[in-house]
């Protein structure tokens, strides 16, 4: 496969990935190479990754606990302290080997350690490959508020190696697939139709590449999310609130990110049908596709109240208004749509019926 | 006086400062105006500052505890949580009204809140006016390691109002004056000679402007500290280690930043005499000038050991070597000079004799 080269960093795929990494490490003359993992990528991904590195470098492995619940400033402080104890200096590099928690948190830690050291992202989950791998968003949660702390900082390079997907279960792959479906909905109707027919996750390579190309095109045109980039938030305004609510509530089973935004996309598709011209048959297509793959989350009335309360804290809100990204049709999104409060409850009613 | 306009931000002096702020606030349409203070600037600076603001805005005051000991991630987390509770959104602005702790920490908090909101620095100490006011360094300490966490992020504008110096004691003014003397040593012999003859801090305005111009010229040529900007670290390699040691040691009285780097500059002037051609009479001039204004810090042998241990953690070190900025003569600095270990102890011997 191929590489996507942008002005600030490069995304390398599959067999070209390790070549690019080895060439970079040989040229960069890093004082030390730190690798950030969680207990899962430590066990399943680190050995195959290390086996591909040629040359002699000083490596240090830093392990954090997996899970969104650990994506916080406390974990950052622990990693900063370990870096400091292990003499990381400005010429050190941090390789983030893991899912979105590791790449988001590791990117933030690296960019703010001694005013910024190089970092390289090696996403090991489907979600991280198609979403966190490009765009440079780094950060951690503040309490139950997702990605409240962080900033835009580009990795030196991103290595996308689909082999790592073999370490994941079906549920995690399905979660990541939701972001790919989103890329179809906001930007490419053909891609959406192709993905709908995917029946096995064994042959995802080409589709992953398409997803990254779509995301990369959007991000390059609007790196700091002034306008166009906001379309990537489709499904995320309600999806994040749902995810946060399930994260902080002790009664609920944990909802994976993709599962939360799958529900968010159905809800926001309904808003699109009411407000921005999405056709009834497109709405039904979207609902049927997501319900078939993700089932339905149950939302009792008190959960809906809590979710709508969390909404106002979403980081995309400005001046107290809640701005949504909605669809004009499948493949075309519209940003900055304000939605009346009462419509939000109707959306949940449609989702549940 | 006048303003310094750079590509990314502007520094406004004295009477032009409030005009610039009022014009900016009227145009920017912020959702809320947050003002970060410590208990001292809350008491002495906030009222006169607010009195100069024209127009109706929603203000929220956030107070942190003063002192380097509170310049840490824990304080950041508290400020992030207050911002979140008070519904700060991406269109909010944070005005940092205080000394270097408030402007460094506030800049870091703002730049990483929801991936970055605007911030404005209003330095109220001499040190912050001539040092922290330009250059965009933000950050906090990690344990006793100064500025270990942070990054370069530019404020929207910097307002330098020397009136605030009336709220400071002689000791704090003298501390800030050390950074001005440094600007003379590294870049401008005439300025050094002028400052030596300053006998009263009542008429510092013109000198403050000169200092900011010198620092700004350096920073504009090398914003990310690849080479030239390093000259601003003269006196700081040993100075920071001394400051950190006194901060974490319970037996010592607290040393102000300028007091620590005054000692650091004498020590590094001696290294310059031995390694980079500083003349003996220049060395004596530097030592006499600093000892007259700052006295001598007492360094028992065990303190020197501890300080040299801290040195290797200084964030400017790379690959385990300790790079110094030294003087070729008064007004001209040389970067990346490696100093043999044994010379460091000799420098302390010279300082104490």
UniProtKB/TrEMBL annotation, chains A, B:
It is an enzyme of class 4 (lyase). Residues 176-317 form the 3-dehydroquinate synthase C-terminal domain. Signal peptide: none annotated. Its EC number is 4.2.3.4. Residues 62-174 form the 3-dehydroquinate synthase N-terminal domain. InterPro entries: Dehydroquinate_synthase (IPR050071), DHQ_synth_AroB (IPR016037), DHQ_synth_fam (IPR030963), DHQS/DOIS_N (IPR030960), DHQS_C (IPR056179). GO terms for biological process: aromatic amino acid family biosynthetic process; chorismate biosynthetic process. Keywords: Cobalt, Lyase, Metal-binding, NAD, Nucleotide-binding, Zinc. GO terms for cellular component: cytoplasm. The keyword Zinc applies. GO terms for molecular function: 3-dehydroquinate synthase activity; metal ion binding; nucleotide binding. Its cofactor is NAD(+); Co(2+); Zn(2+). Catalyzes the conversion of 3-deoxy-D-arabino-heptulosonate 7-phosphate (DAHP) to dehydroquinate (DHQ). This is 3-dehydroquinate synthase. It comes from Pelagihabitans pacificus. The gene is aroB.
């Amino acid at each position: 496969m191929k590489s996507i080269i942008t002005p600030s960093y490069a995304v390398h795929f599959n067999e070209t990935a390790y070549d690019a990494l080895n060439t970079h490490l040989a040229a960069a003359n890093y004082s030390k190479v730190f690798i950030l993992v969680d207990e899962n990528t430590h066990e399943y991904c680190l050995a195959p990754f290390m086996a591909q590195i040629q040359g002699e470098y000083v490596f240090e492995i830093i392990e954090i606990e997996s899970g969104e619940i650990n994506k916080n400033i406390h974990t950052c402080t622990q990693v900063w302290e370990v870096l400091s104890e292990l003499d990381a200096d400005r010429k050190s590099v941090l390789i983030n080997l893991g899912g979105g928690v590791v790449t988001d948190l590791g990117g933030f830690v690296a960019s703010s350690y001694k005013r910024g050291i190089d970092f390289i992202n090696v996403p090991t989950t489907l979600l991280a490959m198609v979403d966190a791998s490009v765009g440079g968003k780094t950060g951690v949660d503040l309490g139950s508020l997702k990605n409240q702390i962080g900033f835009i900082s580009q990795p030196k390079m991103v290595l996308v190696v689909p082999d790592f997907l073999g370490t994941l279960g079906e549920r995690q792959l399905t979660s990541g697939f939701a972001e790919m479906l989103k890329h179809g909905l906001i930007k490419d109707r053909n891609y959406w139709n192709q993905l709908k027919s995917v029946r096995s996750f064994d042959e995802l390579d080409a589709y992953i590449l398409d997803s990254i190309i779509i995301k990369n095109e959007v991000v390059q045109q609007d790196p700091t999310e002034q306008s166009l980039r906001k379309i990537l938030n489709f499904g995320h305004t309600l999806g994040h609130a749902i995810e946060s609510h399930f994260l902080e509530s002790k009664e609920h089973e944990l909802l994976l990110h993709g599962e939360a935004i799958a529900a968010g996309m159905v809800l926001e598709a309904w808003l699109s049908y009411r407000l921005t011209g999405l056709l009834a048959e497109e709405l039904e297509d979207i609902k049927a596709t997501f319900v078939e793959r993700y089932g339905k989350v149950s939302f009792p009335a008190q959960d809906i109240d809590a979710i709508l309360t969390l909404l106002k804290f979403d980081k995309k809100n400005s001046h107290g208004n809640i701005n949504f990204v909605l669809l004009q049709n499948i493949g075309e999104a519209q940003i900055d749509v304000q939605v009346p409060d009462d419509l939000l409850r109707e959306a949940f009613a449609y989702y549940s019926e």
